[in-house]
Design goal:
With 339 residues, this protein is α+β, with helices and mostly antiparallel strands. Helices cover 42% and strands 18% of the residues. It folds into three domains: 71 residues; 114 residues, Immunoglobulin-like (Sandwich); 97 residues, Immunoglobulin-like. It contains eight helices and twelve strands. The longest helix has 36 residues. The N terminus is likely disordered. The structure holds dinuclear copper ion.
Length: 339
């Protein structure tokens, strides 16, 4: 008996410790994945959360107080049957009040659902978002052609942006807590969604559905610009890479890239590199992060990633690329020049 209660205490302690560590972990990453609403839909969702919280709070306190009173009476040896208020308590506490609370919750939930399902204003821009293992393929179509980038969604601020979510592998979940709730990307079932950022800025997103070994390293950025600035970005993004010729800076790096196995997985529009397995690299020098937020896009990280990406993200589809040092340096300079 003593042994089993000690074991029980240890189990409880273990659970508490795990909970505390989880909380510490959450507070640690709060800087990155903020829950502070910064867009219309996220504001509605946050309102609903606080509504639920303040509605549940008095019920929780009332139950705790009643429980403490009951314990006190019981420990004094009073006859509970003589003092309770029987039916009245059951009707009010067990039926009327919970029914009113549920009705209020349901109404607010339906109101929120209606508000976040469709934006009030028509979305002029539509962006394709495809979940990969484990990165995000982002497409912008102008009706004639679609250009692709990776792990960065650029949008104009202050207006809703439609998203076409899809996956050709497993289920992922698109989540930018500051801008809207979660939405799953289900293979074979394209899903419409939308986000809105009230102000220009950078918002962090994360895959929110376990999708394999590197699920945690499936981060992305939403970068909201003023409309003019966004159109400039899109115009620049549509440009193919300049094909370098003998004598140009980074020509050797370009050649080293085009002669290596890189081209079978990556596209650099304008060149013969047209692989579709990995991210499009046409403007990769301008991106802030590598490998869906695994590393920041700086020289040392890029070199280490090319040489052996598996040490940073085991199981990703990119094989180690042990290029000769001169070629490696050239490829890095070339990739960084792609802006
Ligand atoms: Cu993709 Cu988790």
């Amino acid at each position: 008996m003593g042994k089993s209660s000690a074991a029980h205490r240890h189990r409880c302690f273990g659970v508490l410790l795990a909970g505390a560590l989880t909380l510490l972990g959450l507070s640690g990453c709060a800087e990155v994945l903020s829950l502070q609403p910064k867009g219309l839909a996220a504001e509605r969702i946050a309102d609903l959360w606080w509504f639920q919280f303040f509605l549940a709070l008095p019920f929780f306190l009332a139950v705790v107080i009643l429980l403490l009173l009951a314990i006190r009476r019981h420990s004094r040896g009073g006859d509970v049957r003589q003092r309770n208020h029987g039916m009245k308590m059951i009707v009010w506490g067990g039926a009327i009040l919970p029914a009113l609370a549920m009705l209020a919750l349901m109404s607010h939930t339906i109101y929120t659902l209606v508000a976040v399902t469709e934006p009030a204003q028509h979305a002029e821009l539509s962006v394709e978002v495809q979940g990969k293992m484990w990165w995000w393929k982002i497409g912008y179509s102008n009706g004639e052609e679609t250009i692709f980038t990776a792990n960065e969604i650029h949008i104009p601020a202050g207006e809703p942006v439609a998203l076409e979510l899809s996956s050709d592998n497993v289920i992922h979940s698109f989540w930018v807590p500051e801008l809207n709730g979660k939405r799953d990307l289900i293979p074979g079932i394209p899903e419409g969604f939308w986000i809105q950022a009230d102000q220009p800025g950078t918002y962090h997103g994360q895959c929110a559905e376990f999708c394999g070994a590197q699920h945690a390293k499936m981060h992305f950025l939403v970068i909201a610009h003023e409309r003019e600035e966004f159109l400039e970005w899109l115009e620049l993004e549509r440009q193919p890479a300049r094909v370098l010729v003998e004598g140009d800076e980074n020509f050797r790096g370009q050649q080293a890239f085009l002669e290596a196995a890189c081209v079978s997985c990556h596209t650099i529009r304008g060149t013969i590199a047209s692989g579709m397995i990995g991210p499009d690299l046409t403007h990769m020098g301008s991106r802030r992060e590598l490998a869906a937020g695994t590393l920041s896009n700086v020289t040392g990280n890029l070199a280490a990633w090319i040489v052996d990406s598996q040490q940073f993200k085991p199981g990703n589809l990119m094989p180690p690329m042990p290029l000769p040092p001169q070629d490696l340096l050239g490829v890095i300079d070339y990739l960084q020049s792609l802006r």
